[in-house]
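User: Show me a protein chain along with its predicted structure.
Assistant: Here is one chain, sequence first, then structure tokens.
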Amino acid sequence: MSETTRQDSVQQGNGKVQTSHHPETDPNRKDKHYYGIPPIKHAHWTWQVPVYFWIGGIGAGVQMFSTVAQILGHGDKDLQRVSRYTVLVTMVLSPILLIWDLGRPERFLNMMRVIKLRSPMSTQSWSLVAFGNLAGLIAARQAAEDGLLGTDNVLVRLTKLIPDRLLSLLALPVGLNVGSNTGNLISATSVPIWARNWVFMGPVFLTSGLSTALSWLSLYLRLTRSGRPETLHALHRAEKATILIEAGLIAASLFRMSRWAKPLFSKTVAPLFVGGTLIGGIAAPFALLRGEEDRRKSILASVLVLIGGLAFRFAMIRAGRISADDPEAYFTFTSGENAPQPEDKV
């Protein structure tokens, strides 16, 4: 035995040899599993992915609100115009950001070869394509009505034949899937903090997307001093209600995550989650929106909600990396109640 090995190996009182490597005999080791090596790899997503989650959520939320307004017979042309162009822009940017993160366009195209209804990645890819095409047709009809395609030509006459109201109804369920499936997608992984919250992850992302969408619509209409008073009033009330629902879902998520929510309160993620999301994106806007409507307060609240929605997505992604890199979190998560049971349908 070499001198170095003799120094690393110490005979303990119970007869076991203490080494500097074994997790059961080295009292100085804090990790007791897998020699401190993470058993799963964390997501190597770049900044484009949380931004894509944020933009996609805004597009889905705008589609939801504008379609409900259409169903209820609310005919605000300013709301209709900004809604249709917003959804188009978000659905143009979302695939670009996703492909940018993937590195090569063919990786996105490969996901178009087949459709797997039980795969969140596959359904998300197809939903983006379907929602984007529907948004493009609806926005083209709006552009024709706004005179952006000319005054009287064949293209304008053909474009005005697009059944925009019917397509808006068809786009609603697809948009809802785009907004919620981002949460379902990350919860379908083995990352403890995401997988543990599979019940609420989709609803939280969808509600956060609706919250940011309402704030965007309110911000645009108030800054441009457009939109009917009843539209602004409806947005004001909807913003408050959505913020409350979002707060409740986040609270339920933290309860559901239990011990595995710890990364959200870590030194690197807490400024985004606690400061940016809970305080800046929920508590402060709700306080500003309380009481009588005020244009300046509403504008500030909308800006805070938009920033808070972006901070929430960055916080979830960073917390997921910390959770994946923690062997203790993984092994405690995959044991006990979280372990697959024989009767589970996989």
